[in-house]
Structure formats: C-alpha cells, structure tokens
Fold these 2 entries.
Entry 1:
Amino acid sequence: MADLSVTVGPASTAETVAVAPHDRVIIHIEETPTTGYRWTVDLSDDVLTVDSDDFRATVGGMPGAAGERTVVLRTTRPGRSTVTLRLAREWEAEPARTVRLDIAIRDTP
C-alpha cells in the first residue's frame, strides 16, 4: 500500500494518475470557505472510496484567509474511475470551477 499525493493548482482542469489496489490518493486543493465557495467530491463508481475530507486554515493566516482542503481516497480494486471536484456555493446551481481526475487502478500480480 502506498500514498500518491496530487496537488490541484489554479490552472488544473484534468489529470490522470495511476495507482495500485488499496493505495491512497491524497488530493490537496486551495479553498476559501468564508467566501461561500467549497469543494465537493463526486465519485463515478465504487472503485474508490472517500477515507477523509478535511479543511485546514493556513497557520498564522488572517481570519477568512484561504486554506487547504485535503481529500483522501482509497482504491478498492483494479479498474478506472473518475473523481470530479466542484467548487461552488451551496445556493448556486453552477460550479465556479470543476476539476476532473481520472484514476487508473492497475491490476497487481
């Protein structure tokens, strides 16, 4: 079992990562929840599960400053899956930003 860390930057829209079964994919993405915008995670199937989804404010940052959302996914079996991250306000219909991660879980002997 291994961890793969993926940092989603301001210009990211799509990435592809390859991992083994039972590995963890750790996604780091900037968020400023005081603006009302929060990241949500949608999984396309049961090839991945969400182990945790946490926000941490920047240490020593000003009140209301940005922090980092960390989402930890665990692979369950070989296959392909898509993770869609949406940055939106709860009360708005359309997200301000969408990022897609395609995850390939290879079959290990």
Note: The mean pLDDT is 87.
Entry 2:
Amino acid sequence: MDRKYIRLSHILNSSTPTYGDRASLEIIPNSEISKGATVNSTQLNFSTNHIGTHIDFPMHYYEDGLSPIDVPIDYWIFNNIALVEIHINPGQLIKADDLIEYELYSDMK
C-alpha cells in the first residue's frame, strides 16, 4: 500500500520565531566531515522550549501533569487529517476560534 505523509511541523532554523521574541535558535557545528572530522555533529542552543510548532504538555502548567513520555506513542497517529488554509500574519498564533468555521473545534470545547 502506498502511503503519503504530510509534515505537520516545520524544520527549525535560526529564523524560526520564538515565543515572546526570545533569543533565536543557534545551530552550531561541533564537527564537520568537510573539515576532516569523521562525522557531522551539531549543537542546538535555544532559550525557550516555545519555539516553532510545539505542544505544551500538562506538566508545563501543573506539577503532576503529563509529560511527553507519559503519552502513548499511538496517541500521535492520526487517520483522518483535515487540511485547512488559515490566513494569519507571520508569528501570529493559530487559536481555536480560527478553526470554528472549519468545524474542527467542536470536539475541543
């Protein structure tokens, strides 16, 4: 069976917006094959976990909240994906109200 996948996030780079305009992501090569190293290795430095497309898990707000490792892996497998086009400004957050016209928000209330 031929499957198609859709990237639901974007690749992080030094231009990726951060929440609250905190410091941008730094991508620093640790070693490079082109400079004689045996492997390519990169260090990522960022001042916030609110960068790019992300999910705030309950532990972000509650002491005993669920963390990413508490959520079963099959929770992230979706069979019925809806693709919609939402016109927003760069850096603007998509909120539940933006999805109402697509009837995607009804189960979230």
Note: The beta strands are 26-31, 41-45.
